[in-house]
Backbone:
């Protein structure tokens, strides 16, 4: 607890502290706050304020706890100038309550001027609010869970499973909020649920390419026990998806006791875009693909799997 000069030296009731650390060697700042973020995507810094999705249960930094559904949420708007020496607390007026659907929320993302949040456990919807003027929360029915929310330029993409299939939905933000298109991968699940497992690369035409690791015949947490089977690529233009094909892993990732690769610790699959080159990291392999008139194909691959050690007898 801190002692607040404004309170005559009494202990204050702030349950947490927000710290701001300048990168130019300046003096750090602090402010007493309540609640805690869901995860790293709960933060957005604008020109003059920090916006934070907070819940009444601040345990998201513990392993697995960021996936625990929250039933009470607020959007805090904290003026940057108010982050001082730590003797003050953020007033209640800076916290704007957010409507939470039944079942709670465990996924959130700021995209442009909007905050989207939903549940990877069910609900088949996402909530959308304009963070520049938090007030009305709009409900968008996706028809599937919200296991991942990513930026698609100034719009968004929501990825989630339903009835054994994986759905990738392009969401138009703004006044005409809607699901513009959904691409369904039958009998599939995400091959990597962590943040680095999905990437969208915009191009000069106003569209872009989305890369997403998947597993066939896999449940929600299969990626914690098995490596990704394929990297699927979707071309997005005008919020419509067109399949570009997949790059496939050669097989299960060898078990080296997590010396060089470990799906459980940090994930081992991600799409890579280097200039015009399209690659996929899956386990111990890097696979490169190329566009063809009919779609795409594998060009080459390299493995950095450790060489088994032979013990002399």
Residues:
């Amino acid at each position: 607890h801190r002692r607040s000069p404004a309170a005559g030296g009494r202990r204050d009731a702030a349950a947490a502290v927000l710290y701001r650390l300048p990168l130019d060697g300046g003096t750090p700042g602090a402010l007493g706050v309540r609640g805690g973020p869901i995860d790293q995507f709960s933060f957005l810094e604008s020109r003059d304020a920090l916006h934070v999705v907070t819940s009444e249960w601040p345990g998201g930094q513990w392993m697995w706890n960021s996936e625990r559904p929250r039933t009470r949420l607020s959007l805090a708007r904290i003026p940057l100038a108010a982050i001082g020496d730590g003797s003050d607390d953020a007033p209640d007026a800076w916290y704007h309550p957010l409507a939470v659907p039944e079942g709670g929320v465990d996924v959130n993302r700021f995209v442009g001027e909007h905050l989207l949040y939903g549940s990877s456990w069910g609900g088949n919807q996402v909530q959308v609010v304009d963070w520049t003027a938090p007030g009305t929360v709009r409900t968008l029915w996706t028809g599937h869970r919200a296991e991942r929310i990513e930026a698609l330029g100034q719009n968004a993409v929501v990825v989630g499973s339903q009835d054994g299939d994986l759905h990738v939905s392009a969401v138009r933000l703004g006044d005409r909020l809607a699901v513009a298109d959904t691409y369904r991968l039958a009998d599939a699940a995400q091959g990597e649920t962590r943040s680095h497992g999905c990437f969208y690369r915009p191009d000069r035409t106003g569209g872009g390419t989305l890369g997403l690791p998947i597993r066939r015949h896999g449940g929600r947490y299969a990626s914690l026990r098995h490596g990704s089977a394929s990297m699927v690529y979707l071309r997005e233009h005008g919020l419509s998806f067109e399949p570009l094909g997949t790059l496939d892993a050669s097989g299960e990732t060898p078990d080296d006791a997590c010396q060089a690769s470990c799906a459980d610790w940090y994930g081992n699959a991600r799409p890579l875009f280097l200039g015009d080159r399209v690659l996929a990291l899956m386990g111990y392999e890097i696979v490169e693909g190329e566009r063809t008139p009919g779609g795409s194909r594998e060009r080459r691959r390299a493995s950095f799997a450790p060489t088994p050690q032979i013990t002399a007898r």
